[in-house]
Design brief:
Residues 91-282 form the ABC transmembrane type-1 domain. Belongs to the binding-protein-dependent transport system permease family. It is a multi-pass membrane protein. The protein has 297 residues and is an all-alpha fold. It has 2 domains: 16-74; 85-293, MetI-like (MetI-like fold), CATH 1.10.3720. Helices cover 70% and strands 1% of the residues. The chain is built from 13 helices and 2 strands. Strands 1-2 form a two-stranded antiparallel sheet. The longest helix is centred in the N-terminal third of the chain and has 47 residues, at 8-54. It is globular, with a radius of gyration of 26 Å.
Length: 297
Amino acid sequence: MAAGHPPRTMRNTISLPSNRYQLLNWTTRTLIHLLALAGAVAFLVPFLWMISTSLKPMEKIFQYPPQWMPDPILWRNYIEALTVMPFGLYFRNSIYVTVLSVVGQILSSAVVAYGFARLRFPGRNILFIILLATMMLPWQVTMIPLFILYRNLDWINTYYPLIVPNFLGGSPFFIFLLRQFFLTLPLELDEAAKLDGCGPFRILWQILLPLAVPGLTTVAIFSFLWNWNEFLWPLIVLNDVDKWTIPLGLNGFRDQYGTDWNHLMAASFVASLPVIIIFFIFQGYFIQGIATTGAKG
């Protein structure tokens, strides 16, 4: 036996743990992929049902067994759905409210998150804990007090209740996400900027925000999705039909006699396209932002 080489039996014994780890890794990856596939199917089936229903005549929507491929395919359902009500007006209203709300959420959440992540002041941690505690408070609890407040301000039947609060502190969830992202950036950046005479807002605006694009994109996507799909609050504060957003317009396909399912699904598919397009364009930033926000506490 040559010197410096272990016996064959020892080499086989040493290789066993490596093979076991490889088997465990393969099994783990397989389970993860199967779970991801199951989750994808669970989310994809309702979406495919929406598309299928949007192309069917009304009498074939709930037939059994289900028919996934429409026969005949009625493309006119989309034309009728978009013309039976002022869909273009509702679309513009939703764009107006959503874009301004997203801008407000990004700006206000970034400022508050910067204060919690980079500035030192008495009671900072206590205030942050209180902020996180508000995430456990259902929004419906504050709905009536907010309505009374906005009624006293004469803001009912305007877009102010939908937009202005987003500029006044943002969402606790978005503040938490951006705070976690700012904590991953080295403090040496702030110190170097202070030596050059930069103040806190200049550090935030010129140094940290350009580096926080993934986190800001994550906030923008979440905010766009939530504001675009918001139904209850616009239903409460908006009275005029001309001021309705898309979710309120979609509710118009329902009445006391039933639901116009094929037209409702056609309009819903068109309404979901902006969210889908934005997610696919910025999905790289979105995934990076979600992964980075959990890197440091």
